[in-house]
Write a structure and sequence with these properties.
The protein is an alpha/beta fold and about 300 residues long. It has two domains: about 20-180, 3-Layer(aba) Sandwich (Rossmann fold); about 180-305, Rossmann fold (3-Layer(aba) Sandwich), CATH 3.40.50.1980. Helix content is about 45%, strand content about 10%. The chain contains twelve helices and eight strands. It has helices at about 20-30, 50-60, 85-95, 105-115, 125-130, 145-160, 165-195, 205-210, 220-230, 235-245, 260-275, 290-305, and strands at about 45-50, 65-70, 95-100, 120-125, 200, 215, 255, 280. The chain has a four-stranded parallel sheet with strand order 2-1-3-4, sandwiched between helices. It has a four-stranded parallel sheet with strand order 6-5-7-8. Helix 2 (about 50-60) packs across helix 7 (about 165-195), helix 7 runs parallel beside helix 12 (about 290-305) and helix 10 (about 235-245) runs parallel beside helix 11 (about 260-275). It is globular. The two termini are about 15 Å apart. Mean pLDDT is about 85; it is low at about 1-35.
Length: about 300
C-alpha cells in the first residue's frame, strides 16, 4: 500500500493567469526554433505531462531522448496541479510533447498556446486510443490496451523525429512490451480465478484494471466520481460505501492513496476494521519503483494476493 500525506481535495481550477503567461514569454524568448532534430545529433528533447508517460518514453528512446516529466510528486493530486515557469520553459524548448488528454492535464495545451511552434510534435494519448465524450475516465495508463497503443505511438513519433535511430526505438519498444507483459498476464490470472469478484474503489483510477481483470464494482460509481471531481459524495452513496465495508460485501478496497480526504480515510478505516484488504493505487509512479511496468505489475500482484492468490 502506498503512503501519502493527507491533503484536502479541491475542484480543478484555473492554472495559468496573466503573471504565468508573462513568465512564459520571458523564459521562452522568441520561441524554441524550427522544431527540427538537434543539429549536433544530440538527444531529442521530450516533455511528458506525467511521469508514467515520461518513463515509457525514456525506455523506448534510450540515450537518444532527454525526457522531462512535469507531474512527478506521488503525494500531490494531479487533478489540481499548478504549473510554474520551469514547466513553461521545458515545454517551450521541447521538440516532442506527450500529454494524457481527456481533461487530465489541460495545463499543457494552455502553456503551449502561449508559445506556438509549428515544428513541435504533440502526442495526446487519449486521442490516440480513442477516448472522448462526457467525463471519460482519464486514467488511461491502467488499461493494457491503451498503454500498448500509446507505447507504439511514442515509438512511431520518435522514429519520425529521429529516423537515424529508428531501429533502436523499435528494439526498445519490443523490450518494453516484453517487460510489461507480466501485468497483462496477472490481470488474465485474476480474471481466470476471480471473475465477477466484488470490489470497491474510492476513485475510478483503477477502473480499467478492474474491467480488464473481470472484477465487479460493488459500490456506487457515483461515490468514486464525486471524489474524483473534488466533491463530497451524497449521503446515500456514503451510506452504501460504509455498508459495503461493515457488511464485508467486497473482497478488496482499491484505495487511491494520492487523493485522500476524511471521507476516503473513513472508508479505508472501515475496510481494515472489518478485515477487507486494502490495496493502494496511485496516479504517478511512486518512489521505489524504477519503471512504469514494475509499479503496475506490483499493483496487479497485490490485488491478486488480496483476492486469495
Amino acid at each position: 500500500m502506498f503512503n501519502s500525506r493527507p491533503h484536502r481535495l479541491c475542484p480543478r481550477r484555473g492554472l495559468w493567469g496573466a503573471a504565468g503567461v508573462a513568465a512564459v514569454l520571458v523564459l521562452a524568448g522568441c520561441g524554441s526554433g524550427s522544431g527540427a532534430a538537434p543539429a549536433n545529433g544530440g538527444p531529442v528533447a521530450v516533455v511528458a505531462a506525467e511521469n508514467f508517460w515520461g518513463d515509457i518514453t525514456s525506455q523506448i528512446g534510450g540515450s537518444h531522448v532527454a525526457v522531462t516529466s512535469i507531474v512527478t510528486d506521488p503525494n500531490a493530486d494531479p487533478h489540481t496541479y499548478e504549473t510554474d515557469p520551469r514547466d513553461a520553459a521545458a515545454l517551450s524548448a521541447a521538440l516532442f510533447v506527450i500529454e494524457n488528454g481527456a481533461g487530465y492535464d489541460d495545463f499543457v495545451d494552455k502553456l503551449l498556446g502561449t508559445n506556438p511552434n509549428p515544428g513541435r510534435d504533440v502526442l495526446t494519448i487519449a486521442t490516440t486510443v480513442g477516448v472522448s465524450g462526457d467525463k471519460p475516465n482519464p486514467h488511461l495508463w491502467y488499461d493494457p490496451g491503451y498503454v500498448t497503443a500509446a507505447a507504439r505511438a511514442i515509438e512511431t513519433h520518435l522514429a519520425q523525429r529521429d529516423p537515424a535511430d529508428a531501429t533502436s526505438f523499435a528494439a526498445n519498444l519490443q523490450a518494453f512490451l516484453r517487460a510489461y507483459q507480466p501485468y497483462i498476464d496477472t490481470l488474465r490470472t485474476i480474471k481466470a480465478h476471480h471473475a465477477g469478484a466484488p470490489i470497491a474503489y474510492t476513485e475510478r483510477v483503477p477502473a480499467s484494471l478492474v474491467a480488464t481483470a473481470g472484477l465487479r464494482l460493488a459500490t456506487p460509481a457515483s461515490f468514486a466520481q464525486s471524489i474524483e471531481d473534488g466533491n463530497d459524495p451524497s449521503p446515500a452513496d456514503t451510506a452504501a460505501m460504509d455498508g459495503a465495508m461493515t457488511g464485508k460485501l467486497v473482497k478488496v478496497l482499491l484505495y487511491n492513496a494520492q487523493v485522500v480526504s476524511p471521507v476516503t480515510q473513513d472508508v479505508k478505516a472501515r475496510a481494515l476494521a472489518n478485515g477487507i484488504p486494502v490495496v493502494g493505487v496511485a496516479e504517478t509512479i511512486p518512489s521505489g519503483y524504477h519503471t512504469f511496468q514494475a509499479w503496475q505489475i506490483a499493483q496487479a500482484h497485490a490485488i491478486l494476493a488480496a483476492l486469495g492468490g
